[in-house]
Amino acid sequence: MFRNPFSFKGRIRRLEYGISFIIMVIVNTIMQGILNVAGSSNGSEGLIILYFILLIPYCWFSLAQGAKRCHDRGNSGWYQIIPFYGFWMLFADGEKETNEYGECPK
Q1: Whole domain around residue 21: which residue ranges?
Q2: How far apart are CA 105 and CA 61, in angstroms?
Q3: At residue 59, does pLDDT exceed 90?
Q4: Is 19 part of a structural domain of the chain?
Q5: Residue 29 neighbours by CB distance under 10 Å
């Protein structure tokens, strides 16, 4: 689990995607806290810069995990931009056999 979490290649199971989703919610909450503190204090340009620096790996991780989950379903990683598709990937089972994106992660 969590082998190459920033890579767009391969497939992941629902469990890894679900754990990734929880991690992203926690990190997003922390990042929003940083942004709220930055907005309520003077001279907080450093916190805003920190927020945007943290936003880059956050987005990369989110997109990579989503793409790998799409691959497990047999779809292109671009499918994750469809509204509510990411939520559906939490519950939908992946393909049981090897597909063009790799071996079944089960």
Answers
A1: 14-89
A2: 19
A3: yes
A4: yes
A5: 9
